[in-house]
Amino acid sequence: MSPNGQNLLPERAVPRLPHLPRPLYARTESLARAVSTPRHSHPWVQLSYALEGVLHVHSAAGSFVAPPQRAIWIPADLEHEVVSSPGTEMRSLYIDCATSAWAPPRCRVLEIDNLSRELIRRFCELPVEYDEGGADGRLAQVLLDQLRAAREVGLSLPLPQDARLLRLCRALQAQPDDSRSLMQWSQALGASEKTLSRLFLRDTGLTFRAWRQRLRLLAALEPLQRGDRVTDVALTCGYDSTSAFIAAFRQQFGETPGEFFRD
């Protein structure tokens, strides 16, 4: 396992661009296998989106997950890695910072509606040096307007700064069904349960219980997307019953697993 709880995967190369040929630039990739990038950063914004498959972005601040109909907005100069599931149809947008000065300087998961999806799909078919003053340039501007208005969704998992808590979180990322209580973890980490609870809330904004539940539900997205049985996913993620898993999923995402992936 890597420090992010992912299996050690083949790496795909990060493109080396001295500059963007246009303020909005697109890359298309078909990734048959699960792959990851090395840690890297770039002086422009990146939108990582998958028509099919699930994307994960890991940074020092936390992990971000994008199943279809969601995308991950990665600010300029943020060191990160991108992990894709098998069979991912990836569409990456690179955006000049001057063109996206309206965006907050942090990683976010955005909802991609049907119009934005089709705009991304069409934009990725344009030549690299498209006519900025013509129809292609107007299409790029409409796409940027759509991204500016896109709704942020809670498909992220913050990581703590405290070294003891980070060790705990890495272990749970590697094994989401680990059911040890915070009291049991306190004995292993040499700190009181009260101290760990206080630090967890301070560093992540979540209680230990809420953080672990979010971790498990985010870990469930990839197997659910590829069609695994809900019962099998629930057990793998540490739930004792399918009904408990579905109830937690609905509480977190506002939909059942079937409704979440229906589109």
From TrEMBL:
GO terms for molecular function: DNA-binding transcription factor activity; sequence-specific DNA binding. SMART domains: HTH_ARAC (SM00342). GO terms for biological process: positive regulation of metabolic process. Keywords: Activator, DNA-binding, Repressor, Transcription, Transcription regulation. InterPro entries: AraC-bd, Homeodomain-like_sf, HTH_AraC, HTH_AraC-typ_CS, RmlC-like_jellyroll, RmlC_Cupin_sf, Tscrpt_reg_AraC-type_HTH. Residues 166-263 form the HTH araC/xylS-type domain. PANTHER family: HTH-TYPE TRANSCRIPTIONAL REGULATOR NIMR, TRANSCRIPTIONAL REGULATOR-RELATED. This is Helix-turn-helix transcriptional regulator. It comes from Pseudomonas berkeleyensis.
